User: Fold this.
Amino acid sequence: MSIVGMTDATDSLLKKLDRAITQKEEFAVRRIARMDSIRKEAMLAPDKAKRFEELQKLFRRYRSYQLDSAFTIAQQCIQLAETIDDEKVAEAEMNMSEVLGVMGIYKESMDILHAIPKDRLDTSLLAHYYHLHHATYSLLAENALTNIEKDKYNKLIQLYRDSLLRVNDPATLGYNMLKSKQLLDSGQYEEALSLMQDCYDRYHTDESLLASVSYELSLVYEKLQDTEQEKKYLTISALADIRRAVKSYIALRKLAVMLYQEGDLDRAYSYIKCAMEDATFCKARFRTMEISETLPIIIAAYDKKMQQEKENLFKYLILISVLSLVLAASIYYVYRQLRKLSAAEKAMKKLNDELSDMNVGLQELNKSLSESNLVKEEYIGSVFNLCSSYIDKLDSYRVSINRKLRVQKIEDVIRLTDSKNFVSEELKEFFQNFDAIFLNIYPNFIDEFNALLKEGEQIHPKNEELLSAELRIYALIKLGITDSSKIATFLHYSPQTVYNYKLKVRNKSRIPKDEFMDALQKIGR
Assistant:
């Protein structure tokens, strides 16, 4: 496994440990529930032997959770054992010795052990007897004030370790852990690593053994000076302790010291604080003393870090305040600019709308002008032709009258000038010319005009007419002649006749009357 891989794995384990510490009260509730269940089993036991067995289970649960309760249970076991047999008394007294040793009451603990006749113990109790000596002397060695005392206790530790190795089954975890310590003391680190790695592979799924085997493996890596692996297995051990709601442990305290040395003060403070709380709760005086040696150093470093962070926070706060003021000013400036821009956009939009309206008007005007130009072109040409024709007719009329006057045909002249048919024929010809020119400009006028009238009310020219009188009136209006008197003069009608024609047609309209004239002007576009 690469160093990067190990670092990632350890980081992941540390995050799990962080979460577990926040959940330790939940784990404690589960442990208490299990212990209450065992207590009930002891109370309901059918006989003394069974009750003693259940109390022993309860004692083993409490000895790593709360020593006061474990002490009380040990007393109960002694009282009950005295009514059963000497072997049970020895087992109960060893329980009491174990509790006193962990509580730091070493003399009383050793006095109890020395009073137990070891030659009467079976193999399992003898192994426990040696184990208690080994554990108590290990505590005394760690707490020794002088090297002479430490050497003395270390010799006793080796002596009882050798005794344990003799009586323990080589296949058990306890034997292998002792063997690992022996190998470490003799400098055989690789052999110890191989042994403990095999144990870890075999027992890491057992929740009750995981903390112990992981811690022993961390000791091997400590000797090998592999701090990353040491930290990894210390984390696994501490995580197992927290999840089992163990209150007396070593791994978390050692892990806190390592993290402190690496500069991870937040975790170091959290872990050492948790370890102190648990050791205090458990009444494990020796663990409390161990933690007390490190706690002030870590707390001081943590407090210094917090103070530095507060100072940095204050600086950042000032900086943020200044930046906030600058930001507020910038926002206000941008807001004012946006308002100006918005006003300019509104003005521009209004101007664009006006220009658009003007464009539409210009387009309409262009259409009207184009139409007007076409009308002018058509009618100017036609007017010139008519004028020329009328001049020719007048000249012929003049010549005819002059000739008749020369030959004294006065009656013929009077008859010729008195005839109304002359004017009627000329008007008819004039209207035909007007109608032809108009329909040449607006060939679909009649159909589009009739589309404005109700069904069955359409107007169609009669006989040989191109436009009827009504159509001719509205043709003139289409050309822009809207004054009824002018229309009447043009058509040789009375103004009332023109008005009647217009009213009659508008009454036939299929659209509102006030929209009729606008619709008329759109014909032909």
Remarks:
- The two ends are 89 Å apart (CA to CA).
- Confidence is low (pLDDT under 50) at residues 1-6.
- Residues 419-521 form one domain.
- DSSP finds 22 helices and no strands in the chain.
